[in-house]
Amino acid sequence: MAVKDQITSAITMLGGFLNDILSFIVFTLLDIMDFVLCYVYKVADFFIESEWKPCYCSPAKEPITSSGGKILVSEQGESKIVRLTCSKLQLEEISDTLYTRPSFVSDVSKSTIIRSSSSFRINDPRMGAVRSTCTVNSTIVEMLQGRIGGQQTLPIPRWSDCDCKTCTSCCKETLFVKAGGAKDNVQEDVLFIHGFISSSAFWTETLYPNFSKSAKSKYRLLAVDLLGFGRSPKPTDSLYTVREHLEMIERSVLEPYKVKSFHIVAHSLGCILALALAVKHPGSVKSLTLLAPPYFPAPKGEQATQYMMRRVAPRRVWPVIAFGASLACWYEHISRTICLLICKNHRLWEFLAKLITRNRIRTYLMEGFFLHTHNAAWHTLHNIICGTAGKIEGYLDEVKNQLKCDITIFHGKDDELIPVECSYNVKSRIPRANVKVVENKDHITIVVGRQKAFARELEGIWKNASG
Questions:
Q1: How many degrees, rounded to 5, is the angle at CA 378 between CA 115 and CA 194?
Q2: Side-chain-facing half-sphere of 349: CA atoms under 13 Å
Q3: Burial of 135 (0-12, 13-18, 19+ CB in 10 A)
Q4: Per residue in 1-40, pLDDT tens?
Q5: Predicted structure pTM score
Q6: Boundaries of each AB hydrolase-1 domain copy (predicted)?
Q7: What is the DSSP code string of 23-46?
Q8: Catalytic residue ranges
């Protein structure tokens, strides 16, 4: 037995070593490819849209100061308003991982990622003159300028995005909401929040058909397509921050459906939004159910956002799901290329999926995977998953102290994207949380494939919360 264990250990070490070597080679090549694609897209944008499109590889513009606390940008003799106050800029909650991603090219050239900071004065009669420092990246500047001016300068959709009706619904002011369950005599509401690169179909095609008749007569089920995904709006000038996502959920669900109290069920990235929503509405949440919450406490001295990015996207070729996450997180232009090939042609891929799989659930889940834009995916991944890394502990402490409801966490034991340790990390902050590890299930099959059993488990959670 000891010999067998030694052989297994040796094979594991060798596999890890080969994975490290291959990963270094592959990701070095990807660093170079992304650098080249940066200029390819700049040229393409210029010839197709008659303007250079800034990206997060672009150097930062130099902020200067003015009276009234306005942040201005000086560029070739022109000064333009970026945001009215520093505090307003900070409220956008922009993750530094958008423009600070170490790579082989940046280490060599020292020019792939450049940041610029400048001190300026905020004039507030309550605070007096206060010195503050902000870092402004040129792409953020461009997007904020477009919002302040109230004009959309880029075509809708962009040439690399899909032009179908679903993908051009950018002017709608509300999210797509799929309501199910009780219509009359609604006793309680349940809000479902999907994960990254997904849609409401993750819930509606799996759980909705499997709830019992009594549950469907009592609970109103409300599943949303998050901003930028599925059939929801995909604005090209949005930074997809926590604030924007939460405001759209409130505007699309809580207000029009007159929801006063509700249960929350959230998966993966959706768990972060669920926690933020619970913190904002602590007296309204009746139960909180989280599936595979991405919580990696940063070691002392580590920058939380960068640590989170490395944990979620470890720049490894194996396992495959980690490789995919690394492509999506580290490479702005490779990610845009993938969206150009897949999302722009999603109608073709949906047709092929229906033809090949002949499985309703898989087909709808694949459609949800295809329906997003590069802008939506890129900003949501960085601003929500990475950008909240320094805030999530505060969310968890608020939930522990302010919420009185039950908190249940489900996690697939075989989850290779978000390891089981994340759920136990949450429990370490909220001791009363109940963690349920499901054997032989991963990040997706925690629901898909066990939808009937999970529907019964949810009904039990809601019943206990109402008892």
A1: 140
A2: 18
A3: middle
A4: 677 777 777 787 888 889 999 999 999 999 999 999 999 9
A5: 0.86
A6: 190-297
A7: HHHHHHHHHHHHHHHHHHHHHHHH
A8: 194, 268, 415, 443
